[in-house]
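Moderator note: this is an archived Q&A kept for reference. The question asked for a predicted structure of one protein chain; the sequence and the answer are reproduced below.
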Amino acid sequence: MNHTEQRKRLRALMAGSKCLSPASIFDPISARVAEGVGYEIGLLAGSVASHSTLAAPDLIVLTLSEMADQVRRIMRVSNLSLIVDADHGYGNALNVMRTTQELEHAGVSAFSIEDTALPTPFGQDEDKPSLISIAEGVGKMRAAVAARQDPSLIIAGRTSALMIEGVEGTIARLKAYAAAGVDAIFLSGLKTLAEVEAVHAAVKLPIIAGNAPASLKRDDLAAQGVRVLFQGHHSIPAAVKALRETYTHLFNGGAPADLGPKIASAKEMAGLISEENYKKWQGEYLR
């Protein structure tokens, strides 16, 4: 399947003046629900993929093949422009090349590679991350750009330096990543508008912002080059809560009919699973 049009759509957003938030999705059906609401951009975060695929915490135990497989399942049925958090690229710069190839083939429109030292080194407090050197980070970014086949695919250089090295260190890293050829920059740990202003003034690339304080308004961020703003990953906790309530109701002897107002209708489910198409194909091809 050719995903170039989805990538071009995201590139157009990145070249525009607005700041949008993607739907945090975790599987094919959540992607279709998001599309039905009106989203054009989806996000599959490493943490969400780990939770939904492995029921595990975000400790880099998810593998590249597991992430790529989940992306393929999503993009087989979805027209979203999908942004993927590819963590540290699942290893060194050579692993980043493989990550680029696999995620591009799976259908992503954009992915980020970060410069956090992952997995957390032995003996280090996981709440106090460390960064790889700028030289190693540049090698990873250059490797990703070199491995890309579709020029419309967006590669974002991600850094957590704001939390560790401050604005000056962040700018030094992002300038180096921009020179390595990335298409966008991804800021983690953003706290103030002044931080965004300083980065935007120094690095003329579209900005993807991780979760930001509510005090930072979307229009203000848009004026400083932020084109994508994450809003957290609420979909999977919401799904977990709905599942727990449903299972508890039934386990305790509640009537299935009482769930009616709390669950998707048969008509909505039929649309999400393309039931009409499958019925048509059954009639045409099953003899």
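Archived answer notes: The first strand starts at residue 23 and ends at 24.
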